[in-house]
């Protein structure tokens, strides 16, 4: 049987402005977590991806990624925030 992804339906979720502000911070954190995992596996920066040599062009600080690469991380972060709310969780700033 073929795999059929079934993500949480977030089409009706609207994030508040304060929660939307988390998107960039979570996107940068997601990139840093990904990079930390790669580095711990022996990957290093390389101008082109090379799986045999474990080189990856994305092993740079978040600010140095292309806008397209940062947008990929932003979308992941935003979808995660929306999924949390769709599951009934509340996201609030601790004061």
TrEMBL record:
Record GO cellular component, one term: calcium channel complex
Superkingdom, taxonomy of origin: Bacteria
One GO molecular-function entry: ryanodine-sensitive calcium-release channel activity
Alphabetically ordered keywords of this record: Receptor
Pfam families in the record: RyR (PF02026)
GO BP terms, alphabetized: release of sequestered calcium ion into cytosol by sarcoplasmic reticulum
Domain Ryanodine receptor Ryr: 3-91
The protein's name: Ryanodine receptor Ryr
